[in-house]
């Protein structure tokens, strides 16, 4: 823990950017208030009581206060540090079971989430909605269900090959870090990530033995478990001998880039962790650093973009996803007001601080609605689920997607166009010469593409 984090000058700039303070308007719910409570608690003037610890867990860890502080105080980091101290003093058995025995065990996670996949695949979810049964359950349970996207039949970890060759000449050897949520919930989007990488000259190495990045355990004060998971992942990707490690999850990327810091005091692992973290890049960050093939297909829609906190502030990546989206022909990009304002997810806040999470989400929903976008893109599974809840609660005609999914769709449009031209050529071969004009061929092809857009 950095002791200079306790030296807050109480200027109050952080109050203007804190999502919880803006909703509660209570000093104890502000970064400045939490820094004061943390200092008094660590100096022994206040007991680390349940009320004090609750304020630390009420922090969304969106990092906005870290960015704006004029003297370099990191109130968000301080809140997480106090959680860790409290866990060392009064360890909770359930955290060991959850963050040590379940989440970092991929097979156990797949088994634990099997009921959710059956709920989706057997049509039970659709039936409950058609019968109006969700109205009979508590609002929080209803919202937790609404935030779930369409679930894959099988986790991606079970079907993704360990090595995916580049489509043409291989120019990069890329490790792909498949996150827990990406495998279990957003399998289609991570599969799209692998396709896009492969198309752009990457031989992709996706070790199935990858375990959780460690963020859930870190957020709940179990940094000891994070260190174990970090060591496992570092050793795994060392064996893969990759040039870069790509992830399509903002939370994973932010945590993986911190391995060097987390293990800096470990003589055996410090240097290895620093090398590992230096290789980690968000998928948009990596793609915009290489000669990225511009898709020839069109996506005729309007899109806006929400900045995940742990991508924009945690990694300093915000221009690249926008640039990637703006490469797609037909896609109208409109900037989201307060795009970097937290959506209220923060991992588990919809479970632990339901009302505050929804209040913060309302602000985000208002901004999304103002853009009149067809898509809202975001590169974080937690944000995507929270935004899905947002548009369903407001009944907005908006789809929530990962930016890479739109790029992959544009690439796929190219093959559709090629197939359509092939059909046109066959038709023209049997048609009068008057029908073979280039403008007619182009018009028909464009019509077919527009029909495909409407599917």
Topology:
Elements (H helix, E strand, L loop, with lengths): L18 H6 L6 H12 L7 H8 L6 H5 L6 H15 L3 H8 L5 H7 L1 H8 L2 H7 L8 H8 L9 H4 L3 E2 L7 E5 L3 H5 L2 H13 L2 E4 L9 H5 L3 H18 L3 E4 L2 H7 L2 H4 L7 H10 E3 H5 L10 E8 L3 H7 L3 H8 L2 E5 L15 H4 L1 H18 L3 E3 L3 H14 L4 E3 L1 H27 L8 H17 L1
Helix pairs in contact: 2-5, 3-5, 13-25, 16-20, 23-24, 25-26
Give a quick set of tags describing it:
alpha/beta; 455 residues; single chain; 55% helix; Rossmann fold; Fumarate Reductase Iron-sulfur Protein, Chain B, domain 2; disordered C terminus; globular; four-stranded parallel β-sheet; 26 helices
Please give the number of β-strands: 9
> Number of helical segments?
26
Helix/strand/pairing class, anyone?
alpha/beta
Q: Give the % helix.
A: 40-55%
Q: For the largest beta sheet, what order do the strands appear in spatially? A: 1-3-2-4-5
Our estimate of the beta-strand percent is 5-15%
Largest sheet: 5 strands, mixed
CATH topology of the largest domain: Rossmann fold
For the record, give the distance between the C-alpha atoms at the N and C termini, rounded to a whole number.
53 Å
Low-confidence stretches: 417-445, 448-455
Gyration radius, to the nearest Å? Answer: 24 Å
Question: What features would you describe in this structure?
Answer:
- α24 (381-394) links the parallel β8 and β9.
- This protein has helices at 19-24, 31-42, 50-57, 64-68, 75-89, 93-100, 106-112, 114-121, 124-130, 139-146, 156-159, 180-184, 187-199, 215-219, 223-240, 250-256, 259-262, 270-279, 283-287, 309-315, 319-326, 349-352, 354-371, 381-394, 403-429, 438-454; strands spanning 163-164, 172-176, 202-205, 244-247, 280-282, 298-305, 329-333, 375-377, 399-401.
- The chain has 455 residues and is of the alpha/beta class.
- It has four domains: 3-90, Fumarate Reductase Iron-sulfur Protein, Chain B, domain 2, CATH 1.10.1060; 156-287, Rossmann fold (3-Layer(aba) Sandwich), CATH 3.40.50; 298-406, Rossmann fold (3-Layer(aba) Sandwich); 412-454.
- It is built from 26 helices and nine strands.
- 43% of the residues are buried.
